[in-house]
Design brief:
The chain has about 250 residues and is an alpha+beta fold. The chain has helices spanning about 5-30, 30-90, 95-175, 180-195, 215-220, and strands at about 195-200, 205, 210, 230, 235-240. Helix 2 packs antiparallel against helix 3 (about 95-175). It binds zinc ion.
Protein backbone atom coordinates (compact mmCIF):
# COMPACT_ATOMS: atom_id res chain seq x y z
CA UNK A 1 0.00 0.00 0.00
CA UNK A 2 1.19 3.51 -0.75
CA UNK A 3 0.27 6.77 0.97
CA UNK A 4 1.84 10.23 1.12
CA UNK A 5 4.23 10.56 4.11
CA UNK A 6 2.10 13.44 5.49
CA UNK A 7 -0.96 11.18 5.42
CA UNK A 8 1.01 8.48 7.24
CA UNK A 9 2.09 11.00 9.89
CA UNK A 10 -1.57 11.90 10.46
CA UNK A 11 -2.06 8.32 11.60
CA UNK A 12 0.10 9.10 14.64
CA UNK A 13 -2.18 12.01 15.58
CA UNK A 14 -5.14 9.74 14.94
CA UNK A 15 -3.65 7.02 17.17
CA UNK A 16 -3.17 9.61 19.92
CA UNK A 17 -6.77 10.75 19.63
CA UNK A 18 -7.99 7.15 19.67
CA UNK A 19 -5.87 6.44 22.74
CA UNK A 20 -7.37 9.53 24.40
CA UNK A 21 -10.87 8.28 23.53
CA UNK A 22 -10.00 4.84 24.96
CA UNK A 23 -8.75 6.45 28.18
CA UNK A 24 -11.99 8.45 28.46
CA UNK A 25 -14.09 5.31 27.94
CA UNK A 26 -12.04 3.51 30.57
CA UNK A 27 -12.44 6.44 32.97
CA UNK A 28 -16.19 6.43 32.37
CA UNK A 29 -16.43 2.72 33.19
CA UNK A 30 -14.23 2.84 36.29
CA UNK A 31 -15.49 5.96 38.05
CA UNK A 32 -15.44 5.43 41.83
CA UNK A 33 -18.95 6.95 41.87
CA UNK A 34 -20.27 3.91 39.96
CA UNK A 35 -19.26 1.55 42.78
CA UNK A 36 -20.70 4.01 45.30
CA UNK A 37 -24.04 4.21 43.46
CA UNK A 38 -24.20 0.43 43.27
CA UNK A 39 -23.36 -0.04 46.95
CA UNK A 40 -25.84 2.61 48.09
CA UNK A 41 -28.60 1.24 45.84
CA UNK A 42 -28.04 -2.21 47.33
CA UNK A 43 -28.21 -0.76 50.85
CA UNK A 44 -31.50 1.00 49.96
CA UNK A 45 -32.99 -2.26 48.68
CA UNK A 46 -31.93 -3.98 51.93
CA UNK A 47 -33.50 -1.20 54.00
CA UNK A 48 -36.76 -1.41 52.00
CA UNK A 49 -36.99 -5.13 52.84
CA UNK A 50 -36.16 -4.49 56.50
CA UNK A 51 -38.76 -1.69 56.69
CA UNK A 52 -41.48 -3.96 55.28
CA UNK A 53 -40.55 -6.67 57.81
CA UNK A 54 -40.54 -4.21 60.74
CA UNK A 55 -43.85 -2.61 59.63
CA UNK A 56 -45.43 -6.05 59.28
CA UNK A 57 -44.25 -6.96 62.78
CA UNK A 58 -45.58 -3.66 64.21
CA UNK A 59 -48.91 -4.23 62.43
CA UNK A 60 -49.19 -7.79 63.77
CA UNK A 61 -48.41 -6.59 67.30
CA UNK A 62 -51.05 -3.85 66.92
CA UNK A 63 -53.65 -6.50 66.13
CA UNK A 64 -52.40 -8.70 69.02
CA UNK A 65 -52.69 -5.71 71.35
CA UNK A 66 -56.27 -4.94 70.25
CA UNK A 67 -57.21 -8.59 70.79
CA UNK A 68 -55.59 -8.69 74.25
CA UNK A 69 -57.30 -5.40 75.24
CA UNK A 70 -60.69 -6.76 74.19
CA UNK A 71 -59.98 -9.89 76.30
CA UNK A 72 -59.28 -7.62 79.26
CA UNK A 73 -62.52 -5.73 78.63
CA UNK A 74 -64.52 -8.97 78.50
CA UNK A 75 -63.11 -10.14 81.85
CA UNK A 76 -63.62 -6.68 83.41
CA UNK A 77 -67.27 -6.72 82.28
CA UNK A 78 -67.75 -10.10 83.96
CA UNK A 79 -66.08 -8.86 87.17
CA UNK A 80 -68.35 -5.76 87.19
CA UNK A 81 -71.43 -7.89 86.64
CA UNK A 82 -70.47 -10.30 89.46
CA UNK A 83 -69.58 -7.42 91.75
CA UNK A 84 -72.99 -5.81 91.12
CA UNK A 85 -74.73 -9.09 91.92
CA UNK A 86 -72.72 -9.35 95.11
CA UNK A 87 -73.43 -5.73 96.08
CA UNK A 88 -77.15 -6.02 95.28
CA UNK A 89 -77.68 -8.39 98.21
CA UNK A 90 -79.82 -10.66 96.05
CA UNK A 91 -77.50 -13.61 96.51
CA UNK A 92 -78.11 -14.84 100.01
CA UNK A 93 -77.15 -18.50 100.05
CA UNK A 94 -73.74 -18.78 101.73
CA UNK A 95 -72.70 -21.37 99.17
CA UNK A 96 -73.66 -19.10 96.21
CA UNK A 97 -71.99 -16.14 97.89
CA UNK A 98 -68.78 -18.10 98.38
CA UNK A 99 -68.86 -19.28 94.81
CA UNK A 100 -69.47 -15.73 93.53
CA UNK A 101 -66.64 -14.30 95.60
CA UNK A 102 -64.32 -17.04 94.47
CA UNK A 103 -65.24 -16.32 90.84
CA UNK A 104 -64.54 -12.62 91.32
CA UNK A 105 -61.11 -13.41 92.79
CA UNK A 106 -60.24 -15.72 89.95
CA UNK A 107 -61.56 -13.23 87.34
CA UNK A 108 -59.48 -10.42 88.88
CA UNK A 109 -56.40 -12.68 88.72
CA UNK A 110 -57.23 -13.41 85.08
CA UNK A 111 -57.71 -9.69 84.36
CA UNK A 112 -54.37 -8.89 85.95
CA UNK A 113 -52.65 -11.63 83.88
CA UNK A 114 -54.25 -10.30 80.68
CA UNK A 115 -53.20 -6.76 81.52
CA UNK A 116 -49.63 -8.05 81.86
CA UNK A 117 -49.97 -9.54 78.37
CA UNK A 118 -51.23 -6.19 77.01
CA UNK A 119 -48.26 -4.38 78.57
CA UNK A 120 -45.79 -6.89 77.19
CA UNK A 121 -47.29 -6.60 73.68
CA UNK A 122 -47.25 -2.79 73.94
CA UNK A 123 -43.56 -2.84 74.80
CA UNK A 124 -42.77 -5.08 71.84
CA UNK A 125 -44.92 -2.91 69.60
CA UNK A 126 -43.15 0.25 70.73
CA UNK A 127 -39.81 -1.43 70.00
CA UNK A 128 -41.05 -2.43 66.54
CA UNK A 129 -42.32 1.12 65.88
CA UNK A 130 -38.96 2.51 67.00
CA UNK A 131 -37.19 0.09 64.64
CA UNK A 132 -39.40 1.27 61.76
CA UNK A 133 -38.50 4.91 62.59
CA UNK A 134 -34.78 4.15 62.75
CA UNK A 135 -34.87 2.21 59.49
CA UNK A 136 -36.80 5.02 57.77
CA UNK A 137 -34.27 7.58 59.04
CA UNK A 138 -31.48 5.34 57.67
CA UNK A 139 -33.36 5.12 54.38
CA UNK A 140 -33.57 8.93 54.17
CA UNK A 141 -29.83 9.24 54.89
CA UNK A 142 -28.88 6.59 52.31
CA UNK A 143 -31.30 8.07 49.75
CA UNK A 144 -29.64 11.48 50.14
CA UNK A 145 -26.17 9.88 49.89
CA UNK A 146 -27.25 7.97 46.76
CA UNK A 147 -28.55 11.16 45.13
CA UNK A 148 -25.26 12.83 45.97
CA UNK A 149 -23.26 9.96 44.39
CA UNK A 150 -25.50 10.03 41.32
CA UNK A 151 -25.03 13.78 40.96
CA UNK A 152 -21.25 13.41 41.17
CA UNK A 153 -21.35 10.49 38.71
CA UNK A 154 -23.48 12.52 36.27
CA UNK A 155 -21.15 15.52 36.60
CA UNK A 156 -18.17 13.25 35.81
CA UNK A 157 -20.08 11.70 32.90
CA UNK A 158 -20.85 15.16 31.52
CA UNK A 159 -17.21 16.22 31.81
CA UNK A 160 -15.93 12.99 30.19
CA UNK A 161 -18.54 13.16 27.42
CA UNK A 162 -17.62 16.77 26.71
CA UNK A 163 -13.96 15.78 26.36
CA UNK A 164 -15.04 12.78 24.28
CA UNK A 165 -17.01 15.03 21.93
CA UNK A 166 -13.97 17.29 21.51
CA UNK A 167 -11.75 14.29 20.72
CA UNK A 168 -14.38 13.01 18.30
CA UNK A 169 -14.58 16.41 16.60
CA UNK A 170 -10.80 16.58 16.14
CA UNK A 171 -10.82 13.00 14.87
CA UNK A 172 -13.47 13.77 12.24
CA UNK A 173 -11.40 16.70 10.96
CA UNK A 174 -8.27 14.56 10.91
CA UNK A 175 -9.67 11.49 9.11
CA UNK A 176 -11.02 13.74 6.36
CA UNK A 177 -7.35 14.14 5.31
CA UNK A 178 -6.45 10.43 5.46
CA UNK A 179 -6.89 8.38 2.25
CA UNK A 180 -9.67 5.82 2.53
CA UNK A 181 -7.50 2.71 1.96
CA UNK A 182 -4.92 3.80 4.56
CA UNK A 183 -7.67 4.64 7.05
CA UNK A 184 -9.31 1.27 6.35
CA UNK A 185 -6.08 -0.57 7.16
CA UNK A 186 -5.57 1.54 10.29
CA UNK A 187 -9.11 0.79 11.52
CA UNK A 188 -8.73 -2.93 10.81
CA UNK A 189 -5.48 -3.07 12.80
CA UNK A 190 -6.98 -1.00 15.56
CA UNK A 191 -9.87 -3.44 15.86
CA UNK A 192 -7.41 -6.33 16.11
CA UNK A 193 -4.89 -4.91 18.57
CA UNK A 194 -6.30 -1.64 19.89
CA UNK A 195 -3.66 0.50 18.16
CA UNK A 196 -3.46 0.86 14.38
CA UNK A 197 -0.26 2.78 13.87
CA UNK A 198 2.91 3.45 15.81
CA UNK A 199 5.97 5.60 15.41
CA UNK A 200 9.30 4.10 14.43
CA UNK A 201 11.56 5.79 16.95
CA UNK A 202 15.28 5.17 17.41
CA UNK A 203 14.96 1.87 15.56
CA UNK A 204 12.12 0.69 17.79
CA UNK A 205 8.42 0.18 17.12
CA UNK A 206 6.66 2.26 19.79
CA UNK A 207 3.57 0.06 19.35
CA UNK A 208 5.10 -3.16 20.70
CA UNK A 209 8.39 -1.69 22.02
CA UNK A 210 10.40 -4.10 19.89
CA UNK A 211 13.78 -3.05 18.46
CA UNK A 212 13.77 -3.80 14.77
CA UNK A 213 16.42 -6.10 13.33
CA UNK A 214 19.14 -4.63 11.11
CA UNK A 215 17.56 -6.43 8.17
CA UNK A 216 14.14 -4.87 8.86
CA UNK A 217 15.67 -1.42 9.31
CA UNK A 218 17.55 -1.84 6.04
CA UNK A 219 14.34 -2.89 4.32
CA UNK A 220 12.55 0.18 5.65
CA UNK A 221 15.47 2.44 4.71
CA UNK A 222 15.22 1.14 1.15
CA UNK A 223 11.44 1.60 1.02
CA UNK A 224 10.10 4.67 -0.79
CA UNK A 225 8.73 7.37 1.55
CA UNK A 226 5.20 6.74 0.33
CA UNK A 227 5.46 2.98 0.95
CA UNK A 228 3.32 1.99 3.95
CA UNK A 229 5.60 -0.19 6.10
CA UNK A 230 4.54 -2.52 8.90
CA UNK A 231 6.16 -3.78 12.08
CA UNK A 232 7.13 -7.43 11.60
CA UNK A 233 6.42 -8.08 15.26
CA UNK A 234 2.99 -6.50 15.86
CA UNK A 235 1.90 -5.84 12.24
CA UNK A 236 1.04 -2.23 13.02
CA UNK A 237 1.65 0.50 10.48
CA UNK A 238 5.09 1.94 11.25
CA UNK A 239 5.26 5.66 10.65
CA UNK A 240 8.65 7.10 9.83
CA UNK A 241 9.74 10.44 11.31
CA UNK A 242 13.11 12.23 11.53
CA UNK A 243 13.59 10.46 14.91
CA UNK A 244 13.15 7.00 13.41
CA UNK A 245 16.89 6.25 13.54
CA UNK A 246 17.10 5.33 9.86
ZN1 LIG B 1 5.50 -3.33 16.62
Amino acid sequence: MKAAPEAQKRLLDLAELDAAADRLRHRRRSLPELAEVEERSKRLAQLATQIIAAETEAGDLGRDQAKAESDVDAVRTRVDRDQKRLDSGQVTSPKDLASLQSEIVSLRRRQSDLEEVVLEIMERREAADARVSTLKADRDTVTAALRESEDRRDASFAEIDKEGAEVQGRRSTLVADVPADLLGLYEKLREQSGVGAAMLHGGRCLGCRTSLSIADLNRIRAAAPDEVVRCEECRRILVRTPESGL
